[in-house]
Amino acid sequence: MKTFSSPFFWLVLVVVGGVSLLPIVTNSPSLREDLFLMLMLVTLASSVNIIMGYTGYVSFGHIVYFGLGGYAAFYLMQNFSVHVLTAALIGGVVASLIAFLIGIPVLRLRGAYFALATIGINEAFRVLVNNLPFLGGSVGMLFSFSAYEPYGGGKSAQQFAYFAMVITALLTIATSFIIKKSKFGLGLMAIREDQDAAMVLGINPARTKVITYAISAFFPALAGAFFFFKNGTILPETAFELHRSIESLVMVMLGGYGTVTGPIVGAVVYERLRGFLITNPTLSQAHLVIAGALLLLIVLFVTAGVIGWLRQRFPAVRRYLE
Amino acid sequence: MTTVTSVILEIENVSKRFGGLLALDKVNLSVNEGEIFGIIGPNGAGKTTLFNVINGVYPPTAGRIKFRGEDLTGLQPYDMSKRGIARTYQVVRPLGELTVRENVTVGGCFGRENLPLEKAEKVADEVIDFVGLTARKEMLASKLNIAQKKRLEMARALAARPIMLLLDEVLAGLNPNEVADMLSVVRKIRERGVTIIMIEHLMHAVMNLSDRVFVLDYGAQIAEGTPQEVSNHPKVIEAYLGDPKVAQRFLEGSA
């Protein structure tokens, strides 16, 4: 496998993994909370990048798989006391399976039609869950006090959720890297550039896209499972939140769509920026305006994003910077 | 010719209808292994549609397509690619944001031999060298000029290690020097044993290169034979120049 011999692959994993250890070393719960959120955003952005950046299908409502994974896992933990890791894995498989089935018809659509359809899917699931009594309907579900006991109490459950999120983010980045550098990934990029030409070159686009869509649904589902496990509560509004979906698209565009490190950089920069704006007394009211203006500037002037721009500007780094 | 030739592609009574338009009307043809088979005809005659039907982009409305004895009617383009049919496009279709090398590697990866990535990259390097694009290997395909893009199309098709290659106007838009270069590339491909079907508007090129020529007009076959036979065929002259008598007068008048 080409990926494992790439020093850059290991460098990225070591950097992300190293940073993730900081809250443990410094024993800072607030830093841990910040990084939990950031790693979750990295996971969301990186996985949407697999279908959007590599394959060219803008999955606008990709957050639906975060919600589905969260709900599936929460339901299992709540009603059958399933361990969070098992529950998350099952949630991931459920999300991938649903993505697979939805992908068969929906991935036939191209461009804006596909993007619109994915928004519809997210809204449909939100409304559906709102009306399912066994999932708590509109009031959602809430852990009982004893839920964290098997993990050694609330505090160590938080710690556990953090490590699970670290692993999820690392797995997502590694998968994204492996796909990018593989024959499968080359097929995806051929589909992105010209689906009809790709087909004549020997690629079966329908099959390839559905598999990719299922893979890109798996990791948000894991993230959802750990996020709502840590929260102790899940609601349709927090699980299928469209603006989170849009934010992850901004992160991908900001960092550089179709690159491996772009979504990571995008997630970190966007989250830092948002944090700065919200806490700044004069700018706090304007933070969404500034975020919107930023997106506009990227789309107009630096379509390739930070990493994409570096790759274009300095062709010499293309070989290393993925 | 006295050499024993075997038929590689057989097209039997193939028709293709788009709504009210009959783009191909009961076309019959057979191509022998190792030959260069030229397809000519006025604009809109159905030449590219014929290619699209042969490599599975459109299923034929009626008729059969047999390749190396196997009935391939109705298969998808990617199935055709795996069986050894590759093509280039009249309007080039480079994968713009990928490099030349990546473009050609796609051909190797998903072509007849379904190569793993590393092997496909080796094949790509070799084919890129063959068409003379080595200096541009790391360039983005979108940055190439038209002649280079045509070569890229050719390289991508060749990387699939095809048995039969469909060339759709590879000479269009090239200057005389580039045409001469491209013709030598086509000859070299044939020397490797690849069967070639080419659509071409540049008459002198088709007539020089082809072993046999097939003429389409309004979706129907109007002539088939050696370049000499075809170029003297009254129906061909009519198709290109209108009424043969008028054409004759026109030719005499201009002489």
Structural overview:
Chain A has one domain (3-241). In chain A, helix 3 crosses helix 9 (205-231) and helix 6 runs antiparallel to helix 9. Chain A has helices spanning 7-26, 29-54, 63-80, 84-106, 112-130, 154-180, 183-193, 195-200, 205-231, 236-239, 242-255, 262-279, 287-301, 305-313; strands spanning 141-142, 233-234. Chain A has 14 helices and two strands, in the order H-H-H-H-H-E-H-H-H-H-E-H-H-H-H-H. Chain A has 322 residues and is mainly alpha-helical. Chain A has a two-stranded antiparallel ribbon with strand order 1-2. Chain B has a six-stranded mixed β-sheet, with helices on both faces. Chain B has a four-stranded antiparallel β-sheet with strand order 2-1-4-5, with helices on one face. Chain B has helices at 47-54, 77-82, 100-110, 117-131, 146-159, 176-191, 203-209, 227-231, 234-241, 244-254; strands at 7-18, 21-32, 36-40, 62-67, 70-71, 85-87, 164-168, 195-199, 212-217, 220-225. The longest helix of chain B has 16 residues, at 176-191. In chain B, a hairpin with a 2-residue loop joins strand 1 (7-18) and strand 2 (21-32). Chain B folds into two domains: 1-80 and 165-179 and 189-255, P-loop containing nucleotide triphosphate hydrolases (Rossmann fold); 85-162, no CATH class. Chain B is built from ten helices and ten strands. With 255 residues, chain B is of the alpha/beta class. The interface between A and B is medium-sized, with 22 and 32 residues.
List keywords for this structure.
heterodimer, A: 322 residues, mainly alpha, two-stranded antiparallel ribbon, 14 helices, 2 strands, B: 255 residues, alpha/beta, Rossmann fold, 2 domains, 6-stranded mixed β-sheet, 4-stranded antiparallel β-sheet, 10 helices, 10 strands, globular
Number of domains in the coordinates of chain A?
1
Average pLDDT across residues of chain A? 93
Largest sheet of chain A: 2 strands, antiparallel
Specify the CATH class of the largest domain in chain B: Alpha Beta
N-end to C-end Cα span of chain A: 16 Å
Order of helices and strands of chain B: EEEHEEHEHHHEHEHEEHHH
